[in-house]
Design goal:
With 164 residues, this protein is an alpha+beta fold. The protein folds into two domains: 45 residues; 105 residues, no CATH class. It has a four-stranded antiparallel beta sheet with strand order 7-6-8-9, covered by helices on one side. Strands 4-3-5 form a three-stranded antiparallel beta sheet. The longest helix is centred in the first third of the chain and has 29 residues.
């Protein structure tokens, strides 16, 4: 009556030892990976971690130079969709709109002179303020006295800034 219980205990004990024997080489291998890498058990080697993707979304700005109108479209999963939405919003108010900047997972901006056919330049940045600052700096380098900057980031409403 006790023989089957002993046999079960012995099997459980052997399974426990076997699992320890398999786990120890993996722990030892993980400790040998260079700094910044981790041990991938599927590939049985040290690998670099995948780069962090912020949100995997596309943004675009369309601009009409003759009417000084800019339109932002953001948070799209495909660049074509972001471009189409920006063009649609811009062309509702001006016939000569064109895409001036499209970017993936960064904030975008376009700075332009507030006069017909004035200078304009697109810019990108890690934050809205960085993109706006980059675009405004470009605009001021071109010589206009008054600029406007349309900027936007994924998941946030666009902002139109006007300088005096």
């Amino acid at each position: 009556m006790f023989a089957p219980v002993r046999r079960v205990r012995r099997i459980v004990w052997l399974i426990g030892l076997a699992s320890l024997g398999l786990a120890l080489p993996m722990v030892a291998s993980a400790q040998r990976c260079p700094q910044g890498q981790y041990y991938n058990t599927d590939e049985n080697r040290c690998v670099f971690p995948a780069p962090n993707v912020v949100n995997d979304l596309w943004n675009a700005i369309a601009y009409s130079p003759s009417h000084n109108i800019a339109a932002f479209a953001g948070s799209f999963t495909a660049p074509e969709n972001a471009k189409a939405a920006a063009l649609k919003a811009c062309m509702a108010r001006a016939p000569d709109c064109r895409i001036v900047v499209t970017a993936h997972d960064v904030c975008i901006a376009v700075a332009y002179e507030r006069k017909p056919l004035g200078a304009y330049r697109p810019a990108t940045g890690a934050t809205r303020d960085a993109a706006r600052g980059n675009a405004l700096g470009i605009c001021k380098d071109e010589g206009p006295q008054r600029c406007a900057v349309m900027s936007g980031c994924s998941g946030q409403p666009p902002i139109l800034s006007v300088t005096q």
